[in-house]
């Protein structure tokens, strides 16, 4: 056995032929046993590796199954909160299940971007149309009853998702979008640069509220042609910061301007001139009223 393990290196041979044959057989047999040992070792390593891979695959499938169940529950909860009709619910479920079958990752918290374009349009209209109709600037300009225009605005809305304690707009930044809050809590506050006794105050915005009304007024009732071309934008006097995870929809200034211009182009040249004349008269009357008030105040001050 010692000679086999050393492949016959310890054997001392003579000129006798049978001693040489014995040493040669010991060397060959020891080499065969060594190769046999290496083969069994390789097979054992492959078996243990395949077993560990199977166990890992089984664990991964189990974790993936539990994750999908959790995502499925979150998706059901999101759908129930939005109060979709049965048809929309079925389409959303089919769309997400199809993405699961194709092996694509789906973020339940950011569910809307994973939907098909047509389904995204239906979802945005269902969620945002009531909010748009309740906006003060929309009501004041008589747009609340113009359903087709509001539907186009809904289609142009961009879904936004923010983590907690995240800045959306900072004080002094230009406002280029109106944010409709559909889920979560947002704080809006102003520092007033340290002026006044109440140098800091905050306002809580929740589902159904919005931020950026100044931009809506800026576009819907422009004081000059430059504003209509968006060559300048209003500056935010407040900071908008999330308190929890927030789901919102952004109405970009450029999209709103395009929709309004497309609607104005459908009025025709004569109606457009008439509306422009009415708008100019309104602005002139407001300016004249302010001027008259200034004259009265100056006379009162002189007396």
TrEMBL record:
One of its GO terms (biological process) is monoatomic ion transmembrane transport. InterPro entries: cNMP-bd_dom, cNMP-bd_dom_sf, RmlC-like_jellyroll. One of its GO terms (cellular component) is membrane. CDD domains: CAP_ED. Residues 148-212 form the Cyclic nucleotide-binding domain. The keyword Plastid does not apply. The chain crosses the membrane at residues 16-38. Keywords: Ion channel, Ion transport, Ligand-gated ion channel, Membrane, Transmembrane, Transmembrane helix, Transport. This is Cyclic nucleotide-binding domain-containing protein. The lineage of its organism: Eukaryota, Viridiplantae, Streptophyta, Embryophyta, Tracheophyta.
């Amino acid at each position: 056995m010692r000679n086999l393990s050393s492949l016959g290196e310890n054997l001392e041979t003579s000129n006798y032929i049978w001693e040489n044959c014995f040493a040669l057989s010991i060397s060959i047999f020891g080499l065969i046993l060594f190769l046999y040992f290496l083969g069994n070792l390789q097979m054992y390593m492959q078996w243990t590796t395949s077993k560990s891979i199977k166990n890992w695959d089984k664990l991964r499938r189990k974790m993936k199954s539990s994750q999908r169940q959790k995502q499925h529950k979150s998706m059901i909860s999101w759908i129930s909160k939005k109060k979709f009709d049965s048809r929309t619910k079925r389409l959303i479920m089919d769309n997400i299940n199809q993405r699961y079958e194709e092996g694509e990752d789906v973020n339940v918290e950011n569910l809307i971007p994973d939907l098909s374009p047509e389904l995204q349009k239906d979802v945005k209209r269902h969620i945002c149309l009531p909010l748009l109709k309740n906006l003060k600037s929309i009501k004041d300009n008589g747009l609340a009853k113009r359903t087709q225009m509001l539907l186009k605005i809904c289609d142009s809305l961009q879904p936004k998702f923010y983590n907690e304690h995240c800045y959306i707009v900072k004080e002094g930044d230009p406002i280029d979008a109106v944010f409709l809050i559909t889920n979560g809590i947002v704080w809006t506050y102003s520092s007033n640069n340290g002026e006044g006794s109440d140098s800091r105050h905050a306002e809580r915005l929740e589902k159904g509220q919005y931020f950026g009304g100044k931009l809506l007024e800026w576009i819907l009732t422009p004081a000059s042609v430059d504003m209509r071309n968006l060559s300048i934008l209003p500056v935010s006097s407040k900071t908008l910061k999330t308190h929890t995870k927030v789901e919102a929809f952004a109405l970009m200034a450029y999209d709103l301007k395009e929709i309004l211009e497309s609607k104005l182009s459908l009025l025709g040249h004569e109606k457009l001139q008439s509306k422009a004349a009415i708008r100019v008269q309104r602005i002139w009357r407001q300016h004249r009223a302010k001027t008259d008030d200034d004259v009265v105040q100056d006379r009162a001050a002189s007396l």
